[in-house]
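Honest question from a wet-lab person: if I give you the sequences of every part of a complex, can you actually get the arrangement of the whole thing, not just the pieces? Trying it with mine:
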Amino acid sequence: MAALVITVNGVRREVAAPAETPLLSVLRDELGLNGPRYGCGLEQCGACLVLRGAEAVASCRLPVGEVADAQITTLEGLGTLDEPHPVQQAFLEEQAAQCGYCSNGMLVAAAALIWRTRRPTDEQICAALDDVLCRCGSHLRIMRAVKRAAALMWEEQA
Amino acid sequence: MPDKTDSPRSNVTVGSAGIDAETAGTRWPTPQPMETTQIDDWLTIAPDGLVTIFSGKVELGTGVRTALAQVVAEELDVALASVRVVMGDTARTPNEGYTAGSKSVATIWGSARYAAAAARQELLALAAQRLGGAPADLLVADGVVSLRADPQRRVTYGELLAGGRFGRPVSGRAPLKPASAYQLIGASAGRLDLADKFSGAASYVHDLRLPGMLHARVVRPPSPGAILRALDDAALRDIPSAQVVRLGNFVGVVAEREEQAIRAAQALRLTWDVAAPLPAQATLYATLRAQPTTDEVTLERGAVAKALAGAATVVSASYHQPYQAHASLGPSCAVARCEDDGSVSVWCSSQGVFPLRGALADLLELPTERVRLIFMEGSGCYGQNGADDVAADAALLARAVGRPVRMQWSRADEFAWEPKSPAMVMEARGGLDAHGNIVAWEYGVWTPSHANRPRRALDLLAGQLLHDALPPPSGFFFGGQRNAPNDYTIPHARVTVHWLARPPLRVSSMRSLGGAANTFANESLMDELALAAGADPVEFRLRHLDDPRARDVVQAVARTARWDDPLAPSAAANLKVGRGVAFARYENTEAYVAAVAEVAVDVASGAVRVRRVVVAHDCGLIVNPDGVRNQIEGNVLQATSRALKEEVCFDSTHITSLDWQGYPILKFSEVPDVEIVLLNRPDQPPVGAGEPATVVTAPAIANAIANATGARLREIPFTPTRVRAALAGA
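Yes, you can. This is the full assembly:
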């Protein structure tokens, strides 16, 4: 049987785990990524979000075999400390976290949202992020950061 | 551990005015005066100028790392960028007890700040020798000392120490900067940890990967106290690398990959003698109220019974606080390794690595010095979640299998087994005179100790399972008394704390301990009395407050919330709007905080929407204004979640709130706007901001619901069902 290959952050990677293994386990334990996090394993909290194409999806129950043809982008693939993605820059400028364990899900969901919605309203942000949980209560900062990120992303190209 | 410049030998226990009260009492060694510690215990300076701070406090997501760096950089006169912080390592940092109780900034104020001042004084003395002249002739900026008269003659801190140590005690007599000279303290500084967290750098204990490490899961009993009769691991033959460890009733599995460990845990067939130790939830509060108690009168002023008997009006009410979960977003995790010399190292997110070390040493039957705990961040904990227990699980398994073990709990493990914030019953009675002033206040609270952090093996889940025993009652009661006395000037008052020795569920500290439930009761009764007196709730509070700082926060919150302007009624016939106020001085001795909540209540469904919360907050001198705002926002949103939605459910054998559907928390579409007024007091020492705003949020919401609808909610959470029931009785 040919080895399973997935594309993560633009790089094709061979996967040793069986096809039914959750993508989250492969990303963290095989590829050594830290961005996507285990929160519930039940697709209820959003800590494990990644981008499949341009869509934010939970990776904790998604079999890795199902994403062989997809472009997977994790938090690490959005940007770097030196060249941050607009959501990373905006979250930093708004100091939009406390413990930060939810940040992966927030940033990934925000990146997906502002890609399709140039000026997200409060209602659109709530709809996009409502199933991404934050226990520290950073919601208001996160909402400000999403708006700022959209402005950074689209005004640069204006 | 090699004696490098950045790794002090330290193992000192430090005390200061700010040490957490949870550590007070007989269960904690007498704090050691700062004067007996060495500067090198607290900080080192490398030849390139990099300052490394060693702190017994740890970062729980509240920004303490950043505030500590600000304080030390300020006192030392170095740039914030040249500071890094090592936190909570039993081999390297001072022992500053627990990071808890909203005490870290106050503790740092009495510890690391003095060490930094002593270091600066020492460096100036060295520079004076090097450059010629007296310390008074020198200027310091960003770690560079120069001669005032000849600025070209300069030397850096790094050059002065040349990789060496200070070798001097923290005198306690070094001059401290006056508040007027502060440049870093009082200015908002960006969190030192967030860029890493936003870009996927390893930031948490969950991200630690040791060579040869195995992944683990535990298999817990179906009920507390159940006894394991048989274990069938036949199904594990199909799971590569899976291995079972059984120690008494403690069962764990390890495997090369985490998903294999998860499958193995599910595949094990265990036979238990199930216990049914839990009381009926429907009658929980009556059960608590009927338990035997140890009673402590914490306030006795005047003659309460006589004053109540002579009062023109008496209002009595009972209030209920349910079990609530810390509900950390990430389940607890730890990594443990047995070292070649037989010692054990554990990386964990405990709030108190030094005290936990004693409990783990007891569990592992090792001398304390053979156990090393290294703090790494976890998911925000807000008190004792599973962090200490998972450290014990990892240590037991690592020793059993002889390989490093990473143990991460499942979501259900965390909800089922983290210690809960205690359920409490509060009974309050207030008497008014003929003018509508409060003459008497009688208050009783039924509560277990909230402070139950592990000191011995039996305090840990793993220890209880291993030995099939619960810890004997410690006789140590703490936390339920917090904010039981209110802060008002009332001539006759009595407060009694009825301590419960054996709460039905395992409990421990959660943000503000009993402060939230007691303030909910006190501030609800305050509004019920105001109503009886026909008084405005803000005016009624001010009438009974003498402390100017207390009056300031109440007046500031009323002004900012435009309390005197009536709220516009809702256009929707079923929506009733209202607002409520609450005030407390946290712990009666710490920060002053007042809140006004605005709600819209759907009287058809009973749903409560909190639209806006205004907070006025005085925590003394403010080190990092944006950090304080972040904490206040977090307190308000989390406390709103606790007030509206949160209650741990259980049946006779076990907790049934095991995921986010069973224990929902506030979502984006439900969060209120939060407006904050900071009252900075540069002439006052800083006190904590990590908890105070929690205590006023629920009562402000309850008072707002009553204002909107006339219905009084006396039991948390204010679910639609309870609101409808209260409306029916209003």
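Two things worth pointing out. Chain B has 19 helices and 24 strands. Confidence is low (pLDDT under 50) at residues 1-11, 15-31 of chain B.
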